[in-house]
């Protein structure tokens, strides 16, 4: 994933939701003059900071990851997220009662969060018969809108890997049934 850039090649939307010019551009100035600071918490997790005259707000990478995952899943045409092995393991964990983990919620999402910017990588499975281009552009727009709107971070890029197609009625690869229930 790319580190923070002075220019970016991302599709953005205008306030009305229509695509804006996706050419190279300089990042827009932040609405508040004080938004510095990505740091490391005592546990080693990175976070973004929003500093104001009334206090500081920190946003953990995990929060940005979860926003991206939920935003991607909001788009019709996204069947699942994650690579094949991760999806299989998630399916196996889902069969064990009480084993829903954070990994299932954010499966298929990787983020890099800097002081003022974030870059996102997504692995998705789309439905057969739908335009992959349209689905991925809708995912990209929604992820950018949600992250920028909720965190104030500028999203420099959203890279999407379509890992598989879901075909309705086709038997899906299953994980081995547990021998003991």
**CA-based gyration radius:** 18 Å
Alpha-beta content class: alpha+beta
Question: What proportion of the residues form beta strands (DSSP E)?
Answer: 25-35%
The oligomeric status of these chains comes to single chain
Q: Note the overall shape.
A: elongated
Distance between the termini: 42 Å
CATH 4th-level superfamily of the domain at 61-166: Cation efflux protein, cytoplasmic domain
At the first level of CATH, the class of the domain at 61-166 is: Alpha Beta
- Average pLDDT confidence is 73
CATH A-level architecture of the domain at 61-166: 2-Layer Sandwich
Report the count of strand segments: 7
Largest sheet composition: 4 strands, mixed
* Order of H and E elements: EEEHEHHEEHE
Task: Tally the helices.
Answer: 4
Which residues sit in consecutive blocks of at least 5 with pLDDT less than 50? 2-43
How much helix, percentage-wise, in residues? 25-40%
CATH topology of the domain at 61-166: Alpha-Beta Plaits
Question: Can you characterise this structure?
Answer:
The chain has 181 residues and is α+β, with helices and mostly antiparallel strands. It has a domain of 106 residues: Alpha-Beta Plaits, CATH 3.30.70. Helices cover 27% and strands 27% of the residues. The chain is built from four helices and seven strands. Strands 4, 5, 6 and 7 form a four-stranded mixed sheet that branches. Strand 1 and strand 2 form a beta hairpin. Helix 1 runs antiparallel to helix 4. The radius of gyration is 18 Å and the shape is elongated. The N terminus is likely disordered.
